[in-house]
Amino acid sequence: MENNHWWNKSVVYQIYPKSFQDTNHDGVGDLRGIIDRLDYIKKLGADVIWLNPIYESPQVDNGYDISNYEAINPTLGNMDDFQELIDGIHERGMKLVMDLVVNHTSDQHNWFKESRKGKDNPYRDYYIWRDGKDGKEPNNWGSYFSGAAWKYDDESGQYYLHLFAPEQPDLNWENPQVRHSVYDMMNWWAAKGVDGFRMDVINLISKPDGLPDAKKSGDEKYANVEPLVSNGHRIHEFLQEMNKNVMSKHKMVTVGETPGATPKDAEKYASLDNKELNMIFQFEHMGLDSNPNPALGKWDDRKTSLKDLRANLTKWQEKLYGKAWNSLYWNNHDQPRVVSRFGNDQTEDYRVKSAKMLATMTHMMQGTPYIYEGEEIGMTNAYFPKLEDYVDLESINAYHQLVDDQHLLDGKTMMKYIAIHSRDNARTPMQWDDSKYAGFSDHTPWEKVNPNYKQINVKNALADKNSIFYYYQKLIELRHTMPVITNGKYALVPGNDDDEQIFAYTRQDDDTTLLVILNYTDETVNRHYDVPADAKLLISNYEDDQNDTIRPYEAKVYQY
Ligand code: TEU
Ligand code: CA
Q: Which of 168, 237, 301, 521 lies 20 to 30 angstroms, CA to CA, from 67?
């Protein structure tokens, strides 16, 4: 099966606008900052830029609470800046993907302001309102950001649903007016030249009929809604309708953010006939280091074993082959930094080696790779020690719920977990150089700079031909030039299934084989692989090749 859409060979660079580059001295990144850095992204070789939400928003959840879908957040710039940005991207032969957040709006959106006025308001049915049950919430659903997923509204005497913060009320997708308002808005952006959308929690939009209680599995106060609400009964109908009304009318790429999606779900969402989306972000590999106690969710300090990671990535490669298209990612604005999480940030040598090894792991697989700002220079977790250092509501709420309210963890343990897993680890300002505030701004940034910016920054990376940056640049170039990376069949090297140190797989098409060998550990390992005498070493993170001796975090790819 030949995959020959433009996005099959593309690499996406994700920008978190608030943290990328400030130009007007207020400590917040802005659109003009992105314009100034387009040549940098082009130099890396990325084909597509995905921007986290830049719309008008009270910023309760950093722009994922949108109060006007067709206006730019004034802190970030205005529509003229946006036009200049999209022109600049297109002039450089790149494309722009925007964030589409339509599971919910801000409570400051006009639709919600109208909706909460009362039961007779024409916008009432744009959201999900219910009466309470026995003086309590309508059901036991918990919010992703702690507490109940319902908020009582005094003014109109009912509860409304919010799967995320109370300031993020869920839209009612059962209402065709809601759906068509969204499609119109999408077409409005497409007319401005936008090349695609990343769709926020798009598989949560179809709620189960009757909104029944969700299952609790331990001592959690409110139930985790994800198993019940994700991939709901009308989701494919909604996405096909959206596709007909929007995607089919433009040349665009779409990626759905789909927590709780399995390969079976992906076969429908991202099937090669493109009736719904082009690909999805699945979360299974992001959950391998979660706490076994469901009440604690992701808050833990365990490390993902190679066995679990390999089994998971292999499953996605094999199950989607010839049927659907994968996205490939380690990082985004919600995840800790990959080199700290799956690699090793304890010494400079290991940081650089393990960052390259992990990049090799995903960039040699089938799918569209996503690089999150700073990943290409090996930015690490910030590990801030105090709760006051954190900005993200998810971490702060979780601390209060698990430590103060439920007493499931002591404060010290929770701070250790937050230092490892907080979303703020991804949101510290981009490290451009070693000047004060890392060249991000000359004003105190909205979120603290990672103290290691003097050593880890773009300026240093560009000056060192062995840097992580140039390694990513080479990986991207290989994807652009070698069809086997796009279309070759994936297979584990026989016998590799249980190896706790080495991950070895091949990609193969009619005339080329790639053998990828990766040491996931800080130990030197001896393994023999049959490599033909005429094989060429395509890329590696060591200066030389010692054949069966595979050094700490070594990555090598043979071509034959
Ligand atoms: O994230 C959805 C989502 O699944 C997250 O709750 C995720 O589980 C969590 O962040 C992991 O720590 C999307 C956006 O990417 C996120 O930034 C938003 O806060 C959220 O939706 C609500 O819009
Ligand atoms: Ca600014």
A: 237
